[in-house]
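4.2 Preliminary Data

To establish feasibility before requesting continued support, the project team ran the inverse folding procedure on a target of 668 residues. The structure was first converted into the token representation described in Section 3, and no sequence information of any kind was made available to the design step. The complete token record follows.
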């Protein structure tokens, strides 16, 4: 198995090296046959890495401990599903799985580039050059297919934290699909710079391929927050951990890039800025991978220590130099720059929103890497924690919320007093929501400002979202037909506003849960009760559950809310046989208004005593709802418009015309 896996990885490395060379040579010398062979080698690269991953999965499921990675993470005691997902539970396997995901994106990117003969060789070359690095990483520094001698009879299994929740099945793949997916827009943007043209059809593909990893990053980030909330037992979902920050940074720049592309379609400006944001998003995913897997950052999410840090930094430096040089030398070739006619217009607010998103990204980046810089330069250890991030990002996030409300309410290219009048009703809606928060006990100034901004933006979003449907109804169109029309021609527009709606819901949930959180640390014996907020909880007993890989101590609590029984919660401590310290599994009761959260800190069956932390977290459930709405909106906005629309865009590009737009008033 080791030999077969290693051979497949080396063959993938050879395919990517030769393919990249052929693609660049074919583009420089205009040799279509070379580009055709490069495309075939791109498909071969993907197939070889798929085969290598299949070999590793077979080794994991069959527990072939002669394979180095299986000996590192395999165990006869863990359930079969844990064996299967162990592929991405540690460094070497996760890099191998990364290669598989990259192979899939290389194929999809190659199929997209085939429609653009002028840009295809350069895009293929960039895709396969990235493939070369990761194939080299798998074959060399990571080396999951190394051999072990003598062969051990058993292994330790993956990190117990990763065995403690089924989220391990989906959370890492979603993040990898987001991280790796940025390679396709990176290749498309680089190809546009090489060719000196960002035509309408290529712009559509670039936008769609930026939305795809943006969608997966959204899902990955929220699943990570859910995992932290549901597994770590600290009562929170976001702690500004370096590995939490890693996917957030490219998420912010991808959001800015998608909105900048909307302005390119409408006003023919921001071409270089949008392309630069796409390149930056890819660079940030490489940085995020370094932060996640290098072992340089201390994090509860970083489960592997390794020596691949220098290799990743070298690749990041090469990509950075490549991107800067390409932008500097070719950005002016993308087309004649347009002008912003008025700063106070929809496009003006998009530009301002772009700048705020980039400032948030830079703020997070500085707070994340500053401890490393301080230690490298001054030799001192500095900690940058939650107070810095909250103090710096909360005002910026509120500013984004305001811009999401004001921008879409304004027309493109102009804004007189008449255009500002609809915002009066939106401001009233904001004031009503802030007043409601005040009545319900909100006293934090930033929370009240957030509620005002949320109410304003919510009103604008709902009005603009359903405006086309209302117009069709006025012209005698039936409700079902009007909605069907909007899901067809206005799908991009509807998806954009749906994503805005989800952001509003999520930001309000974050603000309320952060400010209104209640906590009580108690130690109870059987029959004793304690209270936090509206909840009273009584310890009913303790039981022991023996499983092949662990022993669970489960505490049973009967819960009352406002004096009425609402069920039982059973937090637990899990003692894994390969780890000395126990790992808790909190128990959570979720409702529309709040979460009641119990986390066991200690359980003593002999004395019948349980030490635990109890939390009341208001509106946390709405964070997951908001994230789901955002994901649905991005899926809708990024869904292909059909071959007819794509053909029209290609024809328009050939004639030098603008892209036919299906959405007269998309959100900004």
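Position-by-position output of the design step:
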């Amino acid at each position: 198995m080791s030999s077969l896996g290693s051979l497949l990885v080396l063959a993938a490395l050879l395919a990517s090296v030769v393919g990249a060379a052929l693609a660049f040579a074919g583009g420089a010398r205009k040799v279509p046959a070379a580009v055709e062979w490069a495309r075939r080698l791109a498909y071969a690269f993907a197939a070889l890495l798929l085969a290598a991953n299949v070999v590793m999965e077979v080794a994991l499921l069959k527990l072939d401990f002669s394979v180095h990675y299986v000996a590192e993470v395999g165990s006869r005691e863990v359930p079969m599903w844990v064996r299967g997902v162990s592929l991405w539970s540690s460094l070497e396997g996760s890099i191998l799985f990364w290669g598989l995901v990259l192979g899939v994106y290389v194929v999809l990117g190659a199929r997209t580039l085939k429609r653009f003969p002028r840009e295809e060789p350069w895009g293929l070359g960039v895709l396969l050059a990235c493939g070369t690095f990761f194939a080299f990483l798998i074959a060399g520094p990571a080396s999951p297919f190394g051999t072990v001698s003598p062969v051990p009879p058993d292994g330790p299994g993956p990190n117990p934290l990763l065995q403690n929740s089924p989220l391990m099945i989906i959370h890492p793949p979603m993040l990898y699909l987001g991280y790796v997916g940025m390679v396709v827009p990176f290749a498309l943007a680089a190809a546009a710079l090489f060719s000196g043209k960002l035509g309408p059809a290529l712009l559509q593909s670039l936008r769609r391929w930026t939305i795809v990893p943006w969608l997966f990053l959204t899902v990955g980030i929220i699943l990570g927050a859910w995992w932290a909330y549901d597994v770590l037992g600290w009562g929170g979902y976001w702690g500004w951990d370096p590995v939490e920050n890693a996917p957030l940074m490219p998420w912010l720049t991808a959001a800015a890039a998608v909105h900048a592309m909307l302005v390119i379609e409408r006003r023919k400006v921001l071409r270089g800025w949008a392309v630069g944001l796409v390149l930056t998003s890819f660079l940030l995913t490489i940085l995020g991978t370094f932060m996640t897997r290098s072992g340089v950052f201390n994090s509860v999410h970083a489960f592997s220590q390794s020596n691949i840090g220098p290799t990743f930094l070298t690749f990041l430096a090469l990509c950075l130099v490549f991107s800067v040089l390409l932008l500097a030398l070719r950005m002016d070739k993308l087309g004649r720059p347009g002008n912003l006619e008025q700063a106070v217009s929809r496009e003006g607010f998009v530009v301002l929103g772009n700048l705020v998103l980039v400032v948030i990204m830079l703020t997070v980046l500085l707070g994340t890497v500053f401890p490393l810089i301080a230690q490298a330069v001054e030799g001192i250890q500095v900690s940058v924690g939650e107070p810095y991030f909250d103090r710096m990002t909360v005002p910026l996030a509120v500013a984004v919320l305001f811009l999401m409300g004001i921008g879409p309410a304004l027309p493109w290219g102009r804004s007189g007093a008449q255009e500002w009048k609809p915002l009066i009703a939106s401001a009233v809606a904001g004031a009503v929501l802030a007043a409601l928060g005040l009545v319900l006990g909100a006293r934090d100034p930033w929370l009240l400002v957030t509620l005002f901004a949320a109410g304003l933006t919510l009103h604008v979003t709902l009005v603009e979202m359903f405006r086309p449907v209302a117009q069709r109804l006025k012209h005698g169109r039936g409700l079902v037909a009007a909605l069907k029309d909007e899901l067809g021609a206005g799908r991009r527009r509807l998806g954009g506003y749906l994503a805005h709606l989800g952001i509003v819901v999520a930001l309000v949930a974050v603000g309320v849960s952060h400010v209104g959180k209640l906590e009580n640390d108690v130690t109870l014996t059987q029959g004793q009760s304690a209270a936090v907020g509206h909840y009273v909880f009584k310890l009913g007993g303790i039981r022991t559950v023996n499983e092949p890989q662990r022993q669970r101590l489960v505490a049973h609590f009967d819960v009352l809310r406002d004096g009425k029984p609402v069920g039982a919660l059973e937090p637990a401590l899990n003692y894994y046989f390969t780890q000395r310290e126990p790992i808790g599994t909190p128990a959570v009761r979720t409702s529309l208004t709040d979460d009641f959260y119990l986390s066991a800190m200690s359980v003593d069956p002999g004395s019948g005593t349980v030490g635990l932390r109890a939390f009341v977290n208001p509106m946390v459930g709405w964070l997951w709802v908001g994230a789901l709405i955002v994901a649905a909106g991005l899926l809708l906005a990024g869904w292909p418009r059909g071959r007819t629309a794509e053909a029209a865009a290609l024809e328009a590009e050939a004639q030098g015309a603008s892209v036919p737009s299906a959405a007269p008033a998309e959100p900004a």
